[in-house]
Structure formats: C-alpha cells, structure tokens
Write a structure and sequence with these properties.
The chain is mainly α.
Length: 290
C-alpha cells in the first residue's frame, strides 16, 4: 500500500508539469487550431535562459520572473515573425513550420548552451521528504507553483477584460473584429502567454530530470496525451488530463509495463482517445452543417 501511495503521489507531482505544458498546447490550439510541436523546445530554451540568470548571480525567484518575461516576448515574436506570415497557408505548411521550429530551436539551444547535461537548482531544496516520505520538497513545491500559475491564468481569462478579449479572439475571430478587438494582437499575446507557461514547466521539471537540449521531448508527448484526454479545446480539461496522465504513467510504469516502456502509455492514451472519444473527457463535440 505504501508503494502504491508513493507512485500515486509522484504521479500527481509529475502530472502538474504535464498539466502546464498541456495548457500551453491548448492555448495555441484554441487560437490557431494547430498543435505547436515546438512547445517543448521553447520551454527548454527558456530553462537554459533561467540557468544563465541564476549563474549570473540573480536570486532564483528574480531569475524566475525574468525568464517568464523573456519567454513571453519570445513567444510573441515567434507568432509575429514566423507564424503570422503563413496564417492563411494550408495546414501542411503549418505542420512543416512547427517541425522546423522544433529542429531549429532544439539545435540552436544545444549550439549556444552546449549538449552536456546540467544540474538545475531547485528553490525547495531546503526541505526533506514530506507526507511520510511520499513527496520530496521539490515535488510538493512544483505542484504548488503549477497550481498557482493555473489559478492565475484562470482568473486572467475570466476576470479581466484583456483575458476575455483573448478568449473572444480565439473562439470567433470574425465576430471579435466586428466589436473592435485586434485579433492579431490577441494572438501574439496568447503565444507569449503559452511560452511563459511552458517555461514554468521547464523550470519545475529541470531539477528532476536534469537540463539538456532534449529535456522536454518525452514530456511534450505526455502533455499532448493529457491535452487530448482532457479535451484539446478545453483548458481546465487539459489540466485535469495532464494530472491524470501523470498518475496513469507512474502506476502503469510501476505495475504493468515497467519503467523502460512508460512512454508507450502516452501513445496508448493518444490512440485510445482519438479512436474512442476524439473530443476528450471534458471537450465539447462540435457539429457543423455541410
């Protein structure tokens, strides 16, 4: 029973990371109806930038805030300089651009910061195991940070005029333009916000898996599975899906497939959702008349 609780608690902790990346994926999907395959590489680059700030002598939380700002600007620039010129192009063009971004950002990160594995500090290192040894201080702290970010994002989109304008631009760009909302600006802000949220996931997972240019490859797959499971068009559902995938991954790895084949759990979830319930657990089914 203790081993089961340990795997369950660890799954919730890693699920918080998947939830952050899943939320970023859904935010881009809602605005463009495309999946940003480079989301993980953007988060990895942001984490290397955070490490640079820390090594330069900045306190951790100052570096954390500065990285969020840099990531936000980076995401907005990606939308403005790379995605906007091809916004009316065929879908295969977008897929090619996303794959190109994945390769370019990943290799650029390795070229600038090196391919050696680096240790990323945790702001929660001072504490020991908690809840009877079920969670480490960093795991508990990362869940708290992730949930705090998610709550802030929820309040932003439901309680502020800018957040409501971004939601309107994502759901119905044509109607949003008719009421005076600058859809292009909202789209750039959405990309920036998604990049900032992804950077939080990168900074929280780096102390666990160590930092290298390929750090987020597997995590992006789990996050995509979580987004599909919860509902690719439903941000709260994607968050719930991310936590659920984290729990399923840990339990399946411990009791069914083994740690070497844990990545197959994400693939099984993706295929199962697409075949059995494409809208996800909390997504909405859209009917269109043709």
């Amino acid at each position: 029973m203790d081993a089961f609780l340990l795997q369950l608690a660890a799954g919730i902790a890693t699920g918080g990371i998947y939830a952050s990346v899943a939320l970023a994926i859904v935010m881009i999907y809602q605005a463009t109806h495309h999946v940003n395959f480079a989301q993980g590489e953007m988060a990895t680059l942001s984490t290397f930038i955070a490490l640079t700030f820390i090594q330069a002598g900045f306190p951790y939380w100052v570096a954390f805030g500065a990285t969020l700002a840099v990531s936000f600007v980076m995401g907005a620039l990606v939308e403005r300089l790379i995605m906007r010129p091809v916004q009316h192009a065929p879908i295969l063009t977008h897929v090619g651009v996303y794959i190109g971004m994945l390769l370019i950002i990943g290799n650029l990160t390795g070229w600038v910061f090196g391919y050696t594995t680096k240790v990323f500090p945790s702001p929660f290192e001072g504490g020991g195991p908690m809840f009877g040894g079920l969670l480490s201080a960093h795991q508990l702290g990362s869940v708290g940070v992730t949930l705090g970010v998610l709550v802030l994002v929820y309040l932003f989109f439901t309680k502020t005029s800018l957040g409501l304008a971004m939601r309107a631009a994502a759901y119905n760009p044509r109607s949003a333009r008719l009421v005076g909302i600058r859809v292009d600006v909202m789209l750039a802000l959405g990309w920036g916000l998604a990049a900032a949220i992804g950077s939080v996931a990168g900074m929280m997972v780096a102390p666990i898996v160590f930092l290298d240019p390929n750090m987020m490859l597997g995590i992006l797959l789990y996050a995509f599975a979580g987004a599909l499971l919860g509902g690719i068009d439903n941000p709260p559902g994607a968050v719930a899906g991310g936590f659920l995938v984290g729990v399923l991954e840990n339990l399946a790895g411990a009791y069914i497939v083994g740690t070497e084949l844990k990545l197959s759990v994400a693939l099984i979830i993706i295929i199962g959702v697409l075949v059995l319930k494409p809208s996800g657990l909390f997504g909405r089914v859209v009917f269109s008349r043709v």
